[in-house]
Specification:
It is built from three helices and eight strands; from the N terminus they run αβββββαβββα. With 134 residues, the protein is an alpha+beta fold. The strands form three sheets. The protein has a three-stranded antiparallel β-sheet. A three-stranded antiparallel β-sheet has the order 6-7-8. Helix 2 packs parallel to helix 3. The mean pLDDT is 88. This is Pilus assembly protein CpaE.
Length: 134
Amino acid sequence: MLGIHVARQLKAAGVTWKPRLGDRFGIPDRDLDDEVFVLSNMTVQVHDRPEGRVIGFNGTTEWALDDVEIDETVWLPREDQLRELLGGTFRSLDHEAAAFRVRMELLGETLTCTAPTADEAYAAALLRLLAAVT
């Protein structure tokens, strides 16, 4: 999963977020940098009870935020969302030793971006693509 730092780079580079159910996001600069939020129709939690574990469907939580402006959030796109943003430039994702490598083609040239995780490799490729088209 992408961290806040890389997600902020994507946002600064012009990646816009059209929120959909299941999307992950962070709320930086509010002492919530390590928290990951997921857009959902409801809050679902696992509760440990004496009779066993249960999944609870809750309408609210005690510490719930009333709301937050979308501009104050940072989208944490998943691997599939990053790949989709690369569009027709994407060629392949490979894994070698401790690194993932994304290959893309831009103006007839094959470019490669390498990172420790697939998400980070896709993000690096997307940042490179955005830098090339601006």
